[in-house]
Write a structure and sequence with these properties.
Blueprint lengths: L3 H9 L4 H6 L6 E7 L4 E4 L1 H6 L13 H4 L2 H17 L3 E9 L5 E12 L5 E10 L11 H12 L7 H7 L4 H12 L3 H19 L4 H7 L5 H12 L3 H8 L5
Helix pairs in contact: 6-9, 7-8, 9-11, 9-12, 10-11
Length: about 250
């Protein structure tokens, strides 16, 4: 609830651009503002430069379907529609998708409604920043740190979360809770994203058949691998390899 002092001050502020300009000076954080038609009406330099633009003017009026691969844009739109419909915030959403260089990155997204004076949602505002998937390695919880390292380095070797938890001396439920407290993700979510990130690295640097790669990464078959990859990355593994393959180092 906004208090009287805050309300009095905000009424004196006649130019919201003063507040928006602040986001240009927040290192590593991308900020966006959308209207009720889900078009970008403001974005800071981190946001538009990450997408390959050189000025805010180039991105104003565009929606997610003009900026991202269609499967990703569809997911972003569904989230926006939910925020607009319910007015409820969507905080600390962790996703893995392509950056503007075609490399897989983890991002942490927050979205909330922009409201009019009557309290009705009239738009969406949000922030996006890099998510440190190695957070668990610096944790005081040594068991979770070992789990994170194993998932990052050898995701295909973990066939069952329950069995993996038992190897760490924990029940599935206890492991799930402790892991999420440290990383913000469940073990299943983290493992799924780690497999896709590993797939991207292999697809860029080798010609390993997709059927072989699927098994190496812990998928039951190539179809399951392709479906998960398309969901996360917005394209098939084959298209990713054709577009970004041949990288070394």
């Amino acid at each position: 609830m906004e208090n009287a002092l805050t309300s009095q001050f905000l009424k004196q502020s006649d130019d919201s651009r003063d507040f928006l300009h602040l986001f240009d000076h927040l290192e590593g954080i991308s900020f966006f503002l959308k209207n009720s038609d889900f078009q970008i009406v403001s974005a800071n330099a981190n946001f538009y430069s990450r997408l390959g633009f050189t000025s805010e003017d180039e991105i104003i009026g565009k929606d997610d379907f003009e900026l991202f691969p269609r499967p990703l844009a569809g997911k972003f739109r569904r989230d926006d529609e939910q925020v607009m419909r319910t007015g409820q915030e969507m905080l600390r959403m962790v996703e893995l998708f392509l950056n503007r260089h075609g490399l897989p990155d983890w991002f942490l997204t927050n979205k909330m409604a922009v409201r009019n004076r009557k309290g009705a949602p009239v738009g969406i505002m949000g922030t996006v920043e890099r998510y440190d998937q190695k957070l668990g390695l610096g944790s005081g919880d040594s068991a979770i740190a070992r789990a994170v390292e194993a998932m990052l380095e050898h995701p295909g070797e973990i066939e069952s979360i329950s069995e993996f938890a038992a190897q760490l001396g924990m029940s599935h439920r206890h492991f799930d809770r402790r892991f999420k407290e440290v990383t913000g993700l469940t073990p299943k979510q983290f493992l799924g994203r780690s497999r896709i990130q590993q797939a991207c690295r292999i697809l860029q640097r080798s010609n390993t058949p997709l059927s072989t790669l699927a098994v190496e990464l812990g998928y039951c078959d190539q179809s399951a691998f392709t479906a998960q990859f398309r969901t996360r990355m917005g394209m098939t593994p084959l298209k990713y390899r054709k577009q970004f393959g041949g990288k070394t180092g």
